[in-house]
Amino acid sequence: MSRLFSSLLVAALPLAAFAAPLTAQTAATPYFSAELAQPATEEQAIAGGVVFTCEGTTCTGPRSGDRPLRVCSELRREVGQVAAFAVRGEPVAADVLARCNG
Length: 102
What we know:
Number of strands: 6
Strand order of the largest sheet: 2-3-4-1-5-6
Shape: globular
Structural class: alpha+beta
Strand content: 25-35%
C-alpha cells in the first residue's frame, strides 16, 4: 500500500506544480479593485452584491453579476469617492468613473 501511495504522489506532483501558478495568479488579481480618495473606515463594504475587502484606500472584491458601473456607484455610496476603479486589472474609462462618482 505504501508503494501505491508513493506512486500516486509522484504522479500528482507535476499536476500540482502546474496548478499552483494558476491559483496564485487568480488570487493575486481581484475581479474588482478600487482606489479611494480617502481611506475606508470599515474593513468590508457590500456593493452590487459584492463583498469588498478594504485596507486604507484600496478595496478589492470578487466577480458579480452586476455591471461594473453599478458596483462602482454602490461602492462610492458605501465608502466615499472612488479615485480609480478597475475590472480584471483594467481601469474603467474616465467617463465611467465620472458617472460612478456622479
